[in-house]
Amino acid sequence: MTQTITYRFFAPNHDDTAIDLHFDDDSFRLQTPEKPLKPDWAKLAYQKCSNCTLGDDVEWCPAALSFAQFLPRFKEQFSYEKTVVEVETAARTIVTKATFQTGIASLFGLACATSGCPKTKFLRPLARFHLPFANEQETVFRTLAANLLIQYFENSKKGEDKPLNFDALNANYAELNIVNSFLAERLRAGVERDAALNAVMILDGFAYITPDNTDGTFEDIRDIFVTE
Prior knowledge:
- The chain is of the alpha+beta class.
- It has helices spanning 62-68, 100-114, 124-128, 136-158, 167-187, 195-209; strands spanning 2-10, 17-24, 82-88, 93-99.
- It has a four-stranded antiparallel β-sheet with strand order 2-1-3-4, with helices on one face.
- The longest helix has 23 residues, at 136-158.
- The chain is globular and about 55 Å long.
């Protein structure tokens, strides 16, 4: 069984673009096409992340290989160009006006989290309930809530009562920052314009937002709990 999420881009002076992403229903890992595109820049050894835990027996970088399947569709887009993006999931369809860099960033984020990269695997539970174009407050709320719930489940499963904290989450995001920087270097070999590169920079910016809210102040989300 698989699930499908489709991104559609509509813009003047560009052909309409539809990207179908298929996911395993159990693990929600992104499925690779039967005959995937395999550019040299997607090889694991090319600009390999300094914190990569995959061994020499793995030929292709999972995240890069996932990008390679649709990146050629965005080789000529400038970051600032306007587009209408439609995202269709099994539960709903979301349509927004955005720039190409914003639309591609959302697509990249989903593909990266589900690609099989060990350093992005912690984001896969959120990807299962994909919320494209989430703002900073939505991102922080969803991420922190999901992380606390994961810890609660782990404690219940083991019969433990460990205190909940965000130490592991912060460590995961620190690893993700490294991955994003190396992915940006990879993509320089695969694009001609800046939309895709800027998309990775947007993702990297979001990777700093959540850790900034784990010091106990919850600066970006504390106001949403005011009900009076």
